[in-house]
Design goal:
By secondary structure, the protein is an alpha/beta fold. It has a single domain (3-308), classed as SGNH hydrolase (Rossmann fold). Helix content is 40%, strand content 14%. Helix 6 runs parallel beside helix 7 (224-245).
Length: 312
């Protein structure tokens, strides 16, 4: 790839992030020769969950005998694909179905906000909630319905480091972002636990979309994409520490996406890639020319399975 082409690609990536089109941070067996990309969810949205700048109110009581799955987090929890949230779909939709099969009728209450960071979850500024922030809205719901909540899922923190990604998550950039995450995330998880001491909480970690940077040149598998894996591991370690300190379980999405596996595999229409990169181009929309961090249907299914494995 020429330097001019590479520069143009990086410019597109920066513009996409600046416009909020992508967020930093899922069924079937992975084929030996998978095709990059995937199908999109139907273009439907649920009015009870916000997009950035939209308002959301907590729903009323569930029908008699029903329970709740409370979904919290960023655009992955909102089921974002192809420019729209699909809030009853994505990984949370599949998880709700699994809970319902096990425990009976279960309603999804999805308070996720595309673009949410740990800071905006604590202080507001992303979406509009009656109680000011996603976390405060969740606390109110849990206090009112704790006896009926069967599961809380949370993915948050990826957007804290997302803007560092196009340099391969360089430590000089991720250091301050990680410091913020390590300050904020324990507050989020501990407040959720205080609001619902006996409810199961599952916190997801993240796959590494920045592996795709190694498609932009002849990196030999050691370029900025592969180098980003070590920095993302620090993000995921912080998530795990905060989750476990509050008695939550961790859905290991990173392992489900084979984030540290570099064994060569063949991807249809692309060629031979390290397995971790193959998962990203096959299970997300990150492959050129899309450069969209979000999971596709297959990726969301992998994420859902990672959550379901943690259900008690």
């Amino acid at each position: 790839m020429s330097r001019r082409t590479l520069a143009a690609v990086v410019t597109v990536l920066v513009l996409l992030v600046g416009a909020g089109t992508v967020v930093g941070f899922a069924s079937g067996r992975f084929s030996d020769t998978p095709r990059a990309g995937g199908t999109s969810a139907p273009p439907t949205t649920s009015a009870d969950v916000p997009r950035t700048g939209e308002a959301v109110t907590t729903p009323g009581p569930a029908p008699s005998g029903a329970g709740y799955h409370l979904a919290l987090g960023d655009s992955l929890a909102a089921g974002f694909q192809n420019g729209s949230d699909h809030r009853t779909q994505g990984y949370v939709g599949a998880v709700r179905k699994a809970v319902e099969v096990r425990d009976g009728p279960t309603e999804l209450v999805n308070l996720a906000c595309s673009g949410e960071t740990t800071t905006s979850m604590l202080r507001g500024g992303g979406c509009t909630y009656d109680r000011g922030t996603q976390l405060a809205e969740a606390e109110q719901f849990l206090r009112a319905h704790a006896a009926d909540v069967r599961l809380v899922t949370l993915d948050i923190g990826g957007n804290d480091v997302a803007r560092c990604g196009f340099g391969g998550l360089e430590p000089s950039c991720t250091g301050p972002a990680l410091a913020t995450l390590r300050t904020n995330l324990p507050q989020i998880t501990s407040r959720l636990r205080a609001a619902a001491p006996h409810v199961q909480v599952v916190v997801l970690n993240y796959y590494d979309p920045f592996l795709v940077l190694d498609l932009l040149g002849n990196s030999g598998g050691t370029g900025p994409g592969q180098q980003s894996v070590a920095e993302l591991a620090k993000v995921n370690a912080s998530i795990a520490g905060s989750a476990r300190a509050s008695g939550a379980r961790v859905a290991d999405v990173a392992s489900a996406f084979d984030t540290t596996v570099t064994t060569p595999t063949v991807v249809r229409d692309i060629g031979t890639l390290p397995t971790n990169l193959a998962r990203i181009v096959t299970w997300t929309w990150m492959a050129p020319p899309r450069f969209d961090f979000h999971a596709n249907d297959a990726g969301y299914a992998v994420m859902a399975r990672a959550v379901v494995r943690q259900l008690r």
